[in-house]
Specification:
It is flat and about 70 Å long. The chain is mainly α.
């Protein structure tokens, strides 16, 4: 064995991947097929809209975001009137903007307090209130 994967590509050439003990690279090893599939599925779930929302949206707004995401599907399926979906999205957008303004006001107040106490505002976020992303 020369260390090169034994698999033949769609183009008819031999795969240039590094062979494992089985003689195939990770991508072509039939024994690892299920592991590759599971890993790909997990990767897809971690990049999904739901996963991004969980990381980026404050915890108290998540239920509303989830409802709007569900409403999108319902509008698409015809089980929810588009006007209702639009109204839901508008209300969520307004709530998001109000939250953003509140967070910015808190951060500004914290900076003003630092300056008032003779502290130099720094580039770090220490002492500055951040949004709840837990």
């Amino acid at each position: 064995m020369d260390g090169q994967c034994q698999a033949i590509t769609k183009g008819g050439t031999r795969c240039r991947g590094q062979a494992r003990a089985s003689g195939f690279c990770f991508s072509h090893d039939p024994v690892l097929r299920e592991a590759r599939h599971t890993g790909a599925a997990m990767g897809g779930r971690n990049r999904s809209t739901e996963a991004r929302v969980s990381r980026l949206v404050p915890s108290h707004l998540r239920p509303s975001v989830e409802k709007v995401l569900a409403a999108i599907d319902e509008v698409h399926d015809g089980t929810l009137e588009p006007r209702q979906g639009t109204a839901m999205a508008s209300l969520l957008s307004a709530a998001g903007r109000a939250y953003e303004v509140a967070v910015l006001e808190q951060r500004l107040e914290a900076l003003e307090q630092r300056v008032a106490h003779g502290q130099q505002p720094s580039g770090d976020a220490e002492g500055v209130v951040q949004g709840d992303r837990a």
